[in-house]
Amino acid sequence: MTKNKKYKGVFRDKKGRIYCQTEFKASATGKRQRFKRYRDQWGNSFKTEKQAYDELCRARIEFYDKFDYTDYNLTFEQYIVDIFIPYYKQTVQESTYRTAITHFDSFIKEFGKKRLREITPRDCERFRLKLVENYAPNYAKCVWIRFKQCLGYAERMEYIKTFPCKSLDNPKGARPDTKFWTFDEFKKVLTTFDLTDYEDLLRYTTVWLYYMTGVRVSEGFALLWSDYDRENKRIFVHATLEAKKGGIYHRKEQTKTEAGMRYVDLDDETVKVLNRWRELQVANSDSDYILSRFGEPMVKSTLSRMLKRHAEKAGIPVITGKGLRHSHDSFMINVLKKDVLLVSQRSGRIDKATTLNMYSHYYAHQSSIGSEITDLLNKEGLKSDTPLDTPTFN
After folding, report:
1. Could you tell me the sign of the dihedral formed by the alpha carbons of 113, 118, 122, 124, in that order?
2. Contact at 8 Å (CB) between 80 and 108?
3. How confident is the model at residue 283 (pLDDT cuts 50, 70, 90)?
4. Greatest pairwise CA separation for the chain in angstroms
5. How far is Cα 339 from Cα 356, in angstroms, rounded to an integer?
6. What DSSP designation does 332 have?
7. Residue 104: CB partners within 8 Å, gap ≥ 6?
8. CB-based contacts of 77: which residues, under 8 Å, 6+ apart?
9. What is the DSSP secondary structure assignment for residue 228, as one 8-state letter?
10. Arithmetic mean of pLDDT, 227-245
11. Cβ pair 160, 117 in contact under 8 A
12. Which of 35, 56, 192, 248 could in theory staple to 244 by disulfide, Cβ–Cβ 3.0 to 4.6 A?
């Protein structure tokens, strides 16, 4: 028997046949029932592990419906582990699921032994206040919304009759204060690199590429030389680099949003920076990563240390990789005077409203509407003390 790591409860026997297996426990009687299947409900053998896992999820729901958990003693922990997590895992990306596991553990710690149907609005409010007291506003809000998602699914599937969080407010989040570099600060940090040093040339190329393109950190790490179109002066952003346990990284053909799949135009200097790096990079075939030393991709911790070291050398604010993306947007808005739609499209955001909400304070600072109205009135000869021809009335 070989166990499938991705799909819990799915195995292959010695002959290579795929099957699913688990045990169900009826909360009303406490009796366990073994479940094992080589075929789906229509009698078809499983061709993939995914098909076996889907059949296991279907059988699980059928079992719980049969024993009507709503009327018995289903605990919150049983619901999370046996019902919600299998559903949730099928609806989100693997990286999102791994992040959520910590939150699910905290929910179980708080409500685990309590019967699902006995969780009250007061219980939920106490948990909400605890989150607000112990965590940063944005993190508390994130955890609370995920908790509400758990109970919302329970209501939709009729494991509970009412949604206990319905009348409760979400914790108030705060706009993240992401530091960024102005164009002058960017020019200062460039002077801290030694371009005759191989390692420093990589760092210089990294900072330059992020600042001049605005790609997300994971998008930049995933760029291959085959994504660089030297002739048309652009890069094709279509993948992200996902960190897994044990220092393992996976490149997936997917961006954060659909709008993230995009071409980003490059200026002539950025093209020169990339061409110089490709000539000197040790491993630089089309299938190799652009931001790497010997074929292995750069990682977030390396980028963070590099940004801190060179910011301190230049005497400018220390920023994160995300701060480089904000720096590019600031450069587009404040230096190049580009409108919100263009910035939104270049940055790979879903709509311009997201960009406008994030950078509205930038646009407010550069407003010149008053002077534009003044120029127009002067051009038309309209002054406050100059009466215009007015109609006469008989």
Report:
1. positive
2. yes
3. confident
4. 106
5. 10
6. I
7. 80, 84, 85, 150
8. 108, 111, 112, 113
9. E
10. 89
11. yes
12. 248
